[in-house]
Amino acid sequence: VLGLLVWSLIAATTYHLHAAYGWVMFVSLFFWILTLLFFVIYLLQLHQKFYMIPWPLVLMISNAVATVLYITAFVTCASAGQPTSWRQWDYNRRAAASFFACVTMITYGVSTFFSFRAWKGLGSNAATSQVTDHA
After folding, report:
1. Closest residue by Cα to residue 71 from 103, 95, 93
2. Which residues does 122 contact at the CB level (< 8 Å), separation at least 6?
3. Which of 12, 93, 123, 128 is the most exposed, fewest CB within 10 Å of its CB?
4. How many Cβ atoms are within 10 Å of 88's Cβ, its own excluded?
5. Residue (of 34, 33, 25) closest to 101 by Cα position
6. CA 67-43-37 angle, 5° bins
7. Quick one: residue 45, left, alpha or beta (phi over 0 = left, psi -120 to 50 = alpha)?
8. What does pTM read for this prediction?
9. Which ranges carry the MARVEL domain (predicted)?
10. Residue 51 and residue 23 in contact, taking contact as beta carbons nearer than 8 Å
11. 109-122, pLDDT tens digit by residue?
């Protein structure tokens, strides 16, 4: 939802007149589609059918790359705003897009942390840590 807000706010402006907003649009739209794809994969439980793919590692790498690229998108979006522009509505939408890009960046960062814990197996609870494999 946050990524959708970023790219829809940028798309509602005249972003094609400023090259910097093309980068913000690419990052937000690409990771919105990728996140939606991962959501569908997990919703349909396709990750269990493709068990040979290390899904926790794939999610961790994807979230880490999204965090880094959203940092660049946030900085680009925030620095390219011109408050003295004659198109005040464009400035307001770009400022809102900068805010939501920052929130999305933080969200991907937190997801990276939890994906790392899942990849390392640190997310187990007391019940699963007591189970031993006796064959």
Report:
1. 103
2. none
3. 128
4. 10
5. 25
6. 45
7. left
8. 0.77
9. 1-120
10. no
11. 999 999 999 888 87
DSSP assignment of the chain equals -HHHHHHHHHHTTTGGG-HHHHHHHHHHHHHHHHHHHHHHHHHTTHHHHTTTS-HHHHHHHHHHHHHHHHHHHHHHHHHS--TT-S-HHHHHHHHHHHHHHHHHHHHHHHHHHHHHHHHHTTT--HHHHS-----
pLDDT at 104 over 80: yes
Backbone angles phi, psi at 44, to 5 degrees: -85, 5
Q: What does the chain come to in residues? A: 135
Closest to 81 measured CA to CA, from 25, 26, 20: 20
